[in-house]
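Case study.
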Amino acid sequence: EIVMTQSPATLSVSPGERATLSCRASQSVSSNLAWYQQKPGQAPRLLIYAASSRATGIPARFSGSGSGTEFTLTISSLQSEDFAVYYCQQYSNWPPYTFGQGTKLEIK
Amino acid sequence: EVQLLESGGGLVQPGGSLRLSCAASGFTFSSYAVSWVRQAPGKGLEWVSAISGSGGSTYYADSVKGRFTISRENSKNTLYLLMNSLRGEDTAVYYCAKLYGSLYEAFDIWGQGTTVTVSS
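After joint prediction, the assembly is written out as follows.
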């Protein structure tokens, strides 16, 4: 089973600043990596798939990068609606599909 | 609009059974793999089970293998999860999620979730 590890667990950033979230896989997942955003009481929403492709309707301030075992989600200029929990997920080697434990992005 | 709508959650005693349903609309249901993902209270996301578009291939997490059964009825655009021998650790919000295409893809559409509580 591939273990996904996200860092940091909590990230405090001011609105308008850049946020950088990290995700590491225990073995290579190539580019088969997705990022999701989840707000309290809501379902997750797909932001990024194939490591760097934005899903439909996702603003350009969200970008993904990386391949193999190291991945990054960058939010270039944080808006109030971006404060949420973010999960990475691999779909390279399954079952099982595995998620990271999440990074909570909070307002500084 | 592409939508998934779960139902069937509720309170069940340990050892009991429950069947969840997920009604799909806005896309050709039979062309896509679909999955169940759960989230225990205050915890992260855990993949539970997945099924191919035809229904011919099914997959399970070790934590539910032998107790849960995933199935689909493409004529009714509906996904199911039959949960037997339920345990306290199965308490969670259960989401159905559509895969972007095949089973080798991300989960691009999620339902709003249905809550399952296993308690005496």
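Observations recorded in class. Chain A touches chain B at residues 32, 34, 36, 38, 42-46, 49-50, 55-56, 87, 89, 91, 94-102 (CB under 8 Å). Chain A has a mean pLDDT of 97. We will return to this complex in the next lecture.
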